[in-house]
Amino acid sequence: MAAAGTYRLRPASRPTQMPLRPIPTRLLPILAALAAIVLAASGCGTTTADVNRGRTLFVQKCGVCHEMAQAGTSAQIGPNLDDAFAAAREVGETGSTIEGIVKAQVENPRPSTDAANVSMPADVVSGQDLDDVAAYVGMYAGVPGAEPPRVAGGPGAQVFASNGCGGCHTLAAAGSGGVTGPNLDEVLPGQSAATINQSIVDPNAKIAKGYPANVMPANFGESLTPKELEALVEYLIESASKGGGNTASGAKGG
Ligand code: HEC
Ligand code: HEC
Questions:
Q1: Ligand 2 lined by 198 (C-beta under 6 Å)
Q2: I need a labelling partner for 203 at 20 to 30 A (CA). Which of 30, 48, 133, 180 fits?
Q3: 16: which residues sit within 8 A by CB, 6+ positions away?
Q4: What is the DSSP string of 48-81?
């Protein structure tokens, strides 16, 4: 039994239901300390964090390694952040507590090792960027049913927005500015649907010059339905023909 006054992370007993993933043990002291700080600060805490900006930054900077439903990211290098915070939400932790944990993690991840799955680089974002990202994660990580926002532009635009493509790729039509992969406005004009399709489902089949292999997720062939994939390729061809500058004879019919 937890003693009175102890900050309890999980109820001592709970009705039988879905097993919950515990909060990682190494986060417990941070969590307890932060709860106090957050409570103390909440009076003057009208935060200036911009959650929408935080989402964009998250997709670009964190989504390269972390899955999170609301962000539409699916990378598996670090832990799934919905899983990481679902239990905390379930026992009533507030977004601001989670926000604090995220800040602590970004500022002080444990030392890197040779194993990529335990090595998070320090200070991926800082300052206002960190405030915004932390507020975003605090708002959505582990929230049941969270999903990416609806976007205009049809089903292909939605697939692009919901799968983190824009975090790594620039595409004017989608308003995205990722730079981890090639600028799609520049490289797509003139490419056939079959080529684009292969780039998406089998990114390592042909590595774009000057870019690293094994960075673009290789599982879109499984995670997207054939219909989604088709809509996505169509959308890319359409977008590239208007956005990329090469409007002469680049767009192929399909
Ligand atoms: C290069 C890959 C990489 C990037 C980029 C990255 N992370 Fe991580 N992250 C990891 C790994 C690996 C771990 C597990 C580290 C550990 O256990 O020490 C982790 C752990 C975490 C955890 C703790 C989760 C838990 O269950 O313990 C949080 C929170 C987190 N990251 C948030 C972020 C945020 C926010 C960003 C962007 C600002 C980010 N990460 C960027 C790889 C990354
Ligand atoms: C984590 C970063 C990342 C994500 C997410 C990502 N990509 Fe990529 N993508 C890359 C990188 C890096 C390359 C270049 C290396 C290669 O060819 O595999 C690339 C290459 C491509 C290419 C080939 C470009 C060329 O030069 O012909 C296309 C098309 C593409 N991506 C589309 C997408 C689409 C669509 C999505 C979302 C479903 C997506 N990517 C998600 C990083 C990413």
A1: no
A2: 133
A3: none
A4: ---HHHHHHHIIIIITTT-EEGGGTEE--SS--H
| Domains defined along the chain, listed by start | 28-34+50-140 (1.10.760.10), 155-243 (1.10.760.10)
Residue linked to tokens 């192929």:
252
Closest CA to ligand 2's atom 16? 207
Check if 189 has its Cβ closer than 6 Å to any atom of ligand 2: no
Distance (Å) from CA 171 to ligand 2 centroid: 11
Closest to 130 measured CA to CA, from 153, 99, 169: 99
Gap between the Cα atoms of 139 and 20, Å rounded: 20
DSSP string across 128-183:
HHHHHHHHHHHHHTT-TT--PPP-SS-HHHHHHHHTTHHHH-EEGGGTEE--SS--
Nearest residue to 160 (alpha-carbon basis) of 249, 234, 251, 91: 234
pLDDT tens, position by position, for the chain (254 residues)?
333 333 333 333 333 334 445 556 566 555 555 554 544 444 344 468 999 999 989 998 998 889 999 999 888 889 999 999 999 999 999 899 999 999 999 999 988 878 777 789 999 999 999 999 999 999 999 999 999 999 999 999 999 999 989 888 999 999 888 888 999 999 999 999 999 999 999 999 999 999 988 888 888 999 899 999 999 999 999 998 876 544 333 333 33
**Does ligand 1 have an atom closer than 6 angstroms to the CB of 70?**
no
Instruction: Give CA 134 to chain center in angstroms.
Output: 12
